Amino acid sequence: MKMSFDEDDNSLSLSKFESMLKTNKVFFFDSDEFEGIILHYMDTGRINLAKRALKIGLEQHPKSTGIKLVQVEMLIYEDKLELAEKLLTELFAIEPTNEEIYIQQANIFSKRDQHEKAIHSLQTALKYTDDLADIYSMIGMEYLFMDDLEKAKDYFILCLEIDELDYSALYNVVYCFDFLDQNEKAIEYLEKFIDKNPYSEVAWHQLGRQFYTLKKYEKAVWAFDYATLIDDTFLGAYMEKAKAYEKLKRYEEAITAYTITTELDDVTSFALLRMGRCYLKLGNKEKALEFYHKTVHEDPLLDKGWIAITDFYITEKNYRKALYYVNKALGIDDTNTYYWKRYAAINQALHFYEEAELGYRKAFENGDINLDTFILWADTLQYTGEFENAIDILLQASDVFPEEYELEYRLAGLYYLINEIEKGSFHLANGLRLNYHNHTFIQYFFPSVWQLVEVQDKIKNFKN
């Protein structure tokens, strides 16, 4: 239940009430004051004080419908739905046209996941209230609970037609458009909304987000610019604008926008990381590395920061430092397949083949079934002479990728290496069938197998 109280008057009432509790004196409050006091304590999570205020309020105003409706709200909050329902029935007999009775009845239905009944109660409340916007918003939420996004959207729009400053309803409208993949319609709606409310920074921000989703980055920047012109402290708009600048490869402007976010609020590791990436795109490696280190200093548990430094050193071919930092990332998230593949590639570059094999195996165990993972893993095992294990990996891969010529040529080469000629011949035939043009693959990866007369004859016969 939403009550409207003058903030200063409510503050005085709260001070007076708390003074009464401390001195054990009994002060008189009118029923509206009690409603404001109880709701304040409920909103701030101080339920014990809310209960004390309710008890004293009912003692001073035993017939107050308003206080009893607040009692109903508290019972609903505590999931005492049957007691709340009983009290509502009593209140209905006294004031059958009080909209709050139907609102609280709707809250009970909603708690029981009876959303259609909740909507019916709220529709009844509409007949007895002038505050239509709030009811429309509540109906919209019930349709959201029912996953009926179209109807939810319609009611949030009705709410905004009455109360253009209800930003919660505006966010919900956009959420519905997003969920329904109606970005063009969202833009159309937001542009009409902005025509009526040109100084709504939230609407401009949401418009920018829609343009960004549709990859219209120039228009996104334009919309975010308006949001920040209206409110030059709008942190989210600066952040989104920076991301749009990145997409446009306007990295210096992106850095400027990210810098503003760090001045408006506490520095975030996200902004520092993005700034580092922008500097790298600009070719300023020193600045990039500086910001990557600032990122992990700000948030040592941000694995993306550590992996950014890892990638930096990989591009510099400084694999020992890269190995140090990829281990930092794995220490935070040892289920990330991308990190394990990085670990494997770095170890391979350092000629640490057992560690490289471990990396590919861990990537696979954590759900990576990409073709390149299987191939790199098998190649590592082949390099260390573990031909049969490499074959096992490639056979697993062929279950996932049954028509992949690279797997067939590799299996052919490995079977010939372990002298299983019949199997080697079978997979060589498969490889030739799938992609004859790349049959020199055998020559490159298995030069000793390529020299075999049988292999050369099979290739010639296939060509003929």
What do these coordinates show?
- Helix content is 78%, strand content 0%.
- It has helices at residues 7-23, 31-43, 47-60, 65-77, 81-94, 99-111, 115-127, 132-145, 149-162, 167-179, 183-196, 201-213, 217-230, 235-247, 251-264, 269-281, 285-298, 303-315, 319-332, 337-349, 353-365, 371-383, 387-400, 405-417, 421-434, 441-445, 447-450, 453-463.
- Helix 2 (31-43) packs parallel to helix 4 (65-77) and helix 9 packs antiparallel against helix 10 (167-179).
- Residues 1-5 have low confidence and may be disordered.
- The chain has 28 helices and no strands.
- The protein is elongated and about 105 Å long.
- The chain is mostly helical and 464 residues long.
List the helices and strands and how they pair.
Elements: H1 7-23, H2 31-43, H3 47-60, H4 65-77, H5 81-94, H6 99-111, H7 115-127, H8 132-145, H9 149-162, H10 167-179, H11 183-196, H12 201-213, H13 217-230, H14 235-247, H15 251-264, H16 269-281, H17 285-298, H18 303-315, H19 319-332, H20 337-349, H21 353-365, H22 371-383, H23 387-400, H24 405-417, H25 421-434, H26 441-445, H27 447-450, H28 453-463
How would you summarize what this structure contains?
Helix content is 78%, strand content 0%.
